[in-house]
Amino acid sequence: MIYRKPISRREFLGDFSRFSFATWLGLDFLGELKEAGATPATLVESAPASTRRGILKLRLQAFKLREMQEFYADTIGFDVELSKGRLLVQAGGTFIQFDEISEKDFAVADRPHYHIAWAIPESKFAKAKAWLADRTPLLRHPDGRDEFHFRRANRHAVYFADPMSNILELIARHDMTGESSGNFDLVDVLYVNHIGLVIDDMKKAIDQIGHSLGLELTAEPSPNFAKLGDAHRHLTLVTRNRLWIPERKLGANVFKTEVVLHGERSKRFAFEAYPYAISTQP
């Protein structure tokens, strides 16, 4: 079950430093929220109970931290904390830390960008799209579409972008139905469902991640695309220079990434050939 604490931004920021450092040390922040009286979001999950909190933590790179702060806090409404050298974002049940880097160290084509997707209640997709469109432009496919039905995966999605050109997604999985009524709001942003990782050797990456972390393929992979995990949380593997949907303008590339997924037990894997650290945590 996913928990969000109904607190004001001022209250949140007062506690944020204590919680953010605790999470990176491996303490159970979401457990503390539950004990504090948070209200649950109801979902009937099709994946194991040990994964129902999705992706717990992400650590990424960025350089437009002030613009990123304004986007995530003022435009979207997430709780954030900006301090020297980093931006912390509580986005649903997931903590995202953006570490500051120098813009001058990167060519325009090589500036870090990521793909991040949040799970939302499947019954609220239409309301979520309208809510998001009121706040920020939606990304479109070259054919003009601004919402996407992935029939094979049984899901709908809508995309948007932040000031670093990170490709962001709200995803409604129709095999994860449940009770959810009323208007769409931030409480309906449940957790990060998946993040994209860029690799060169698809088969080798699948074998390494599967052996080290026990993450299994969710479907038959293609030469340039695979998903490892389950309906709550998974890694999307794509090959280098594959064009990210929906706009198909931005080529996938390798950037420093740390991912902590909810799992039954603690495991950790670091690629030798990529700046990735992936782990699972109860």
List keywords for this structure.
282 residues, alpha+beta, 2,3-Dihydroxybiphenyl 1,2-Dioxygenase, domain 1, seven-stranded mixed β-sheet, 5 helices, 32% strand, globular, disordered N terminus
Give a verbal description of the structure.
- The protein has 282 residues and is α+β, with helices and mostly antiparallel strands.
- It has a single domain, classed as 2,3-Dihydroxybiphenyl 1,2-Dioxygenase, domain 1, CATH 3.10.180.
- 20% of the residues lie in helices and 32% in strands.
- The protein is built from 5 helices and 16 strands.
- The protein has helices at residues 9-24, 29-35, 65-76, 125-133, 202-213, and strands spanning 2-4, 39-41, 55-62, 79-83, 86-91, 94-100, 115-119, 148-150, 155-161, 167-173, 191-199, 225-229, 234-239, 257-262, 267-270, 276-281.
- The strands form 3 sheets. It has a 7-stranded mixed sheet, with helices on both faces.
- The longest helix is centred in the N-terminal third of the chain and has 16 residues, at 9-24.
Quick rundown:
The chain is an alpha+beta fold and 282 residues long.
